[in-house]
Amino acid sequence: MPLAPVINYSSGLSTDLIDRISSDKNEPEWMLKSRLDSFKKYQLMDMPSWGPDLSGLNLDEITYYAPTGIEETDDWGKIPDDIRKVYDKLGIPEAEYKWLAGVGAQYESDIIYHSLHEEWEKAGVIFINMDQAVHEHPDLVKEYFMKCVPNTDHKFAALHGAVWSGGTFLYVPKGVVITEPLQAYFWMNAPNMGQFEHTLIIVDEGADVHYIEGCSAPKYGRQGLHAGCVEIYAKAGSRVRYSSVENWSKDTFNLNTKRAIVEKDALIQWVGGNLGAGVTMLYPCSVLAGEGARSDHFGVAFAGENQWQDVGAKVIHLAPHTSSKVVSKSVSKAGGVSAYRGLVKVTEDAHDCTVSVDCDALLLDSQSRTDTIPDLKIRNSDVTITHEAKVGKLSDEDLFYLTSRGLSEEEAKAMIVNGFMEPIVRLLPLEYAVEMNRLIELEMEGGVG
Q1: Which of 30, 234, 239, 430 has the fewest CB atoms lying closer than 10 Å?
Q2: In angstroms, rounded to a whole number, what is the distance separating the alpha carbons of residues 449 and 443?
Q3: pLDDT beyond 90 at 12
Q4: pLDDT higher than threshold 90 for residue 82
């Protein structure tokens, strides 16, 4: 059964609520000013008028802040039994024991668990929740917080800046290569809940890290909102992989913002899977600011009944000899809509750049829809750019072959869809790849709400 938060503040947004959030967290004056400035900008901005229909999102009914009253711990045994069972079912404690360097777990508006293996603490890695980082590392936070994603970006970035709560702060020192992934899992539990976690990742020169985020929520039949923010700073020569599987319930609006600034000879890799949420608008962005910087974007999306997956990638080439690769795969069934919306911008100074964009879509019936909406802004001629988009449907011959070998039609369709997505799913850690395949099978059976 879904769990109710320990404390549940009233819905709606006001300066009183923002004051309360900041007061509860005992934030410095500069953070409160930042929140109030974001709120002012939010009030002046219009809702996005392009893409999916957001008219069903009533922002006055959202609960923007729901503290749990649970003190953060690094001991799973100290978390209340009913909440710990949620994370046990998700397999988070077991994964931490077997193959993770550290874990953070957020429930509603609060991080309730956080840990980092001693080996990496001794190496100078900082892996803590964002609220803690504001107090313990104020100079770092103030230097980078909402500089990559400013509150002027769009209405939901401004909203995030006003009411953000929880999330992850990660700093990897120069030359440190973390050999195991770090993971954070965000669980949004209450009806009409909004979650606004902030993830700030700073990977110093020559360092290497793989960070994973998972997201989920039960279905209530009432709207929820996820408007988190991810800011990544990949310093010169660093390597960063950011993987995520977002499986919000289908009554959730997933309006997330993710962006990385990539310096000289650094690499950012985005690997993402979007299966849940009724409406998703998510376009991870790489700003290739240094010579030789690289970015890879690999994404899969599944749109079922009453779902609109509006996803893609943005790459901005600011420096010469930079390169980017975008591979997007989507599946639509039962009237679902999937759209690839991408931006590639190459500036006048970004000579000798290479860009590859490949979009594949699979339609499972005649009621579903897929769109490819690329935006290429090329400001110099010394570039190599390719863009390819393909749309296909299930092959009757493939279905006949598989069913003749003893599979049911639904099993055969699920196998074909898994095979279609496999080139990207295999880039996820094993446990997440298994989860993605199982979720796809459940979607094909109509068993995921």
Answers
A1: 430
A2: 9
A3: no
A4: no
In the structure, how many helices (H) and strands (E) does the chain have?
11, 24
In order, the DSSP letters of 394-443 are --HHHHHHHHHTT--HHHHHHHHHHHHHHHHHTTS-HHHHHHHHHHHHHH
314-317/257-262 β-pairing: unpaired
**CA-only gyration radius of the chain, Å:** 21
The C-alpha torsion from 223 through 157 and 140 to 134, rounded to 10°, is: -40
The reported pLDDT for the residue numbered 180 is 92
Q: Measured at the alpha carbon of residue 232, what is the angle toward residues 45 and 226, in degrees to the nearest 5?
A: 45
Amino acid at position 399, single letter: L
Give the distance, in angstroms, between the CA of residue 69 and the centroid of all CA atoms in the same chain: 26
Given a contact cutoff of 8 angstroms between Cβ atoms, the answer to whether 155 and 46 are in contact is yes
> Does the pTM of the predicted model rise above 0.85?
yes
Q: Residue 394 is encoded by which pair of tokens?
A: 């299930």
Cα(304)–Cα(441) distance, integer angstroms? 12
Tokens read off for 182: 């770090």
Contacts of 39 (CB under 8 A, 6+ apart): 13, 15, 18, 158, 161, 162
Length of the chain: 449
| pLDDT above 60 (res 209) | yes
Q: Where are the domains of the chain?
A: 15-282, 396-449
H helix or E strand, kind and range, residue 371: strand 369-378
d(CA 436, CA 36): 39
CB neighbour burial string for 266-302, b if at least 16 within 10 angstroms, e if fewer = bbbbbbbbbbbbbbbbbbbbbbbbbbbbbbbbbbbbb
Write down the pLDDT at residue 97: 64
Tell whether the model's pLDDT for residue 443 goes beyond 80: no
Among candidates 228, 192, 217, 248, which has minimal Cα distance to 56?
192
Which H helix or E strand runs over 273?
strand 267-274
CB burial readout 432-445, b (16+ within 10 A) else e = bbebbbebbbebbe
For 1-26, what is the mean pLDDT? 74
| Measured distance CA(253)–CA(6) in Å, rounded | 24
In this predicted structure, what is the pLDDT of residue 433? 66
The structure tokens 């609060």 sit at 110
